[in-house]
Amino acid sequence: MPSPSPVQPFTTSPSAHTTGTDPDDHRVRVAAQRRERMRMRLIESALHVFAEKGIDATDIKDVIEAAQVSRGSFYNYFQTNDELMGAVLQELGNELLALVDAVVTKRRDPAERVACGLRMVLRTASQHPLLARFVSRAGIHMVAGNSLAMQYLPRDIQTGLAQGHFHAQQPLAALTMTLGTAHAALCAMAMSDSLPADFPEEVAFQVLLGLGVRRAKARAVVSQAIEAVSLPADALLARTHSPTVTA
User: Which H/E stretch holds residue 109?
Assistant: First the structure.
């Protein structure tokens, strides 16, 4: 008679408990990642459409067509054009300004802060034409709501006024002049790809003069070396980089 087969020891397959993983948690995580990818797809598409048509002239269907998604998919993430615009502004504007402010706050002189921040933004726009086109179309929306521009710039202007670096009867007038000049500069960059290389420096120089800084100091400040904005690979502007400019 053949000898009986040896009895195999009883084993169990690894469970979620023994491996420390929960299938439900994995599914939730994958679903969240999928939702975030779709949300960013809509935001990226909206950025291009807004830059091309302008915010007020853009219809939700334009973004749906650009993103190549269904209307139902769109409404799973955004209910209105304003809601979508807010998401784009949050991702693009605040993302960039946070990177700029991390460099700006290393400087103590308010004049250097304002000039450095403005130059960094304008230089970034020269390297990423989509930024200039979007801001030129967005207009006042860029400084509405919870824009970081309305936190950082008033801070430095008020400090400059308090310390005697700037001279203005009304802080709001100084802020309006600075923001208006910055927006006009970005509009000029959106319309032309042949501006002088030192255009950001000249704009910053004029802003400092408008804030009451002496010419000699203003020229010295805008001649200082500054860092370039280092965009993370997953930054909205980096993902939507376009080297061409269209009027």
Answer: none
